[in-house]
Amino acid sequence: MKNNIEIDQLGLIDCKAAAQLLGLTDRTLRRWRQQRTGPKCVFVGRSVKYRLSEINDWATRTQGYTRESHSRPARPSSKKKGE
Fold first, then answer.
1. Most-buried pick from 11, 37, 55, 67 (CB within 10 A)?
2. Is residue 35 part of a domain?
3. CA dist 59 to 22, 33, 48, 53, 66, Å?
4. Where residue 20 sits, what CATH number does that domain have?
5. Quick check: is 43 in a domain?
6. Is residue 79 part of a domain?
């Protein structure tokens, strides 16, 4: 995996770079944007960008992050007792 992350003059990185830094997929970041969770993003035109400082702050605040803590809750079983 390449570690070449481009940072623009405003300290912004694209979604793929943010995902790479956080060890996530860009699909996960997209889902979190829709759920209004995860690191804050900014829109530059139609492009989604992340402030590098926000990525670092978010990672620091959520050091206890696990995949389970951001996964969907388990669905209740549809089976009745005794089956």
1. 55
2. yes
3. 7, 16, 19, 10, 12
4. 1.10.10
5. yes
6. no
Scored b (16 or more CB within 10 A) or e, 27-51 reads eebeeeeeeeebbebeeeeeebbbb
Q: Supply the range of the domain harboring residue 55.
A: 12-65
Taking only the tens place, the pLDDT of each residue in 64-83 is 554 444 555 455 555 565 65
C-alpha to C-alpha distance for 42 and 12, rounded to whole angstroms:
9
CA distance 18 to 58: 11
What would the pLDDT profile of 22-58 be if each residue is shown by its tens digit? 999 999 999 999 999 999 999 999 999 999 999 999 9
Domain count, the chain: 1
In this structure, which amino acid lies at residue 31?
R
Its pTM surpasses 0.85: no
